[in-house]
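HMG box domain-containing protein: structure, please.
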Amino acid sequence: FNSEVDSLKMALPKSQDHWSKKDVLMLLECMENNLPSNDNHMSQTTQSHLDWGQIAFKNFSGEMCKLKWLEISHKLNKSCALKELVLEAKKHVKNPNRNKQGKKHPDFPKKPLTAYIRFFKEQRPQYTQMYPGLRNQELTKILSKKYRELPEQTNDGSGTELWMDKLGHAQLH
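Here you go.
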């Protein structure tokens, strides 16, 4: 696959390598219109039988269209029919950020810990020393009970809000 893409890239002029979102959607539309009606084969098989000359449009030759399709399809699941693959590619082009929800930049600040987690992290070592024979599950039950017993807010600033304020995060409301 990579050698085919590399050889096609070398054959293409650099100035014609720019594809807009509209052009990519047009390519996918042309591919969809040129697919055989009984496309039950794997995408690789059908792709090899496509007439890329019929798919060519605007200033994009059949070879350029084939290269762009290889770039697009490289990121997709190839274990389905080409028609399904083209539809998946259309969705991806129309909404490119849909698949990137889980990926965040490593320098972005992390979400602040909840008051419960902060309480648990700070109190656990103390309770582990107080009850050395307890299993984690039992220790968690004790800490959860202690946390629930905390008042929401007391006059001296202790309670659940104290645990949110400790690291400078917004108070609970």
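Notes: The CA atoms of residues 95 and 102 lie 15 Å apart.
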